[in-house]
TrEMBL record:
<dbReference type="InterPro" id="IPR017452">
    <property type="entry name" value="GPCR_Rhodpsn_7TM"/>
</dbReference>
<feature type="transmembrane region" description="Helical">
    <location>
        <begin position="199"/>
        <end position="223"/>
    </location>
</feature>
<feature type="transmembrane region" description="Helical">
    <location>
        <begin position="270"/>
        <end position="288"/>
    </location>
</feature>
<dbReference type="InterPro" id="IPR000276">
    <property type="entry name" value="GPCR_Rhodpsn"/>
</dbReference>
<feature type="transmembrane region" description="Helical">
    <location>
        <begin position="59"/>
        <end position="76"/>
    </location>
</feature>
<keyword id="KW-0297">G-protein coupled receptor</keyword>
<keyword id="KW-1133">Transmembrane helix</keyword>
<dbReference type="GO" id="GO:0004930">
    <property type="term" value="F:G protein-coupled receptor activity"/>
</dbReference>
<keyword id="KW-0807">Transducer</keyword>
<feature type="transmembrane region" description="Helical">
    <location>
        <begin position="130"/>
        <end position="156"/>
    </location>
</feature>
<keyword id="KW-0552">Olfaction</keyword>
<dbReference type="GO" id="GO:0005886">
    <property type="term" value="C:plasma membrane"/>
</dbReference>
<feature type="transmembrane region" description="Helical">
    <location>
        <begin position="25"/>
        <end position="47"/>
    </location>
</feature>
<keyword id="KW-0812">Transmembrane</keyword>
<keyword id="KW-0675">Receptor</keyword>
<comment type="function">
    <text>Putative odorant or sperm cell receptor.</text>
</comment>
<feature type="transmembrane region" description="Helical">
    <location>
        <begin position="96"/>
        <end position="118"/>
    </location>
</feature>
Amino acid sequence: MKPNQTALWEFILVGFSTYPHLQSFLFVLFFCLYLLTLTGNLAILGLTWVDRCLHTPMYLFLSALSSETCYTLTIIPKMLVDLLAQSRSISVTGCGLQMCFFLGLGGTNCIILTLMGYDRFLAICKPLQYPLLMTNAGCGQLVASAWAGGFSISLFETALIFRGEFCSPNLIKHFFCHMRAVVRLSCVDSDLTESIVTVMSVTGLLGTFLLITLTYVFILSSVLRIPSAQGKQKAFSTCASHLTVVIIHFGFASIVYLKPETSRGDDTLIAVPYTVITPFLSPLIFTLRNKDMKQAFRKVLGKSSSWDK
């Protein structure tokens, strides 16, 4: 145990308390973004459930990706409360649960984005075998595997970080229980634990990104062999939304998880794009750039207007 320090059972999330004059503005901003994020993800889930035309593997994967609703529920409500509250405390148990769900859902999203790339690869590179290789049942099994994989890694990392006691000062310099910020408060030597969880997170992040990159190399080579310009444009359009979300998701995630320990910068502000902006943009991109989704939305609006009459 570290000398002259006592074990503790509660943390204080420093969060945005270092910006006291901005807290009201940040609350309004984050609250509006959060409502829009929930609305967008719930709209995707609802449209996919209601419209039978969207009962295909691609949209089932998209519905699974809308689990970002749960992903944001783990941290944003607590962050909003802390922006207005004087006490920003969280129990050690609550911190562990928050970290476990955040890492698990984040890992699941990375795997589902990879599976969506695989789905596009089969649809474009193997169109004749696609109905046999990617069925709705098979899609469901892949999504279940993504959840199992994401939470298996999350449980291991969380158990590793919380295996011992924590020592004062009990200040987490973040607005949620980020693993790097928490592991530094461990009473035992935290260097090895921090290295292990960092290597696991970076490996998972880079591994899934490299798999997506590889699928798009094969997709690009297949698209370039299509003789007509219209065919090429149609093939590219089916991938545009997914590719845009991949760039945003992994771009912001790499800033958080690949940032060197010695580099300066406020970790709280650096994490905002990944935890708040990315979940807000994903449903927006998938709905605005998708003809099937817009058509399903028009159908729902048409039915509701006919009922009003």
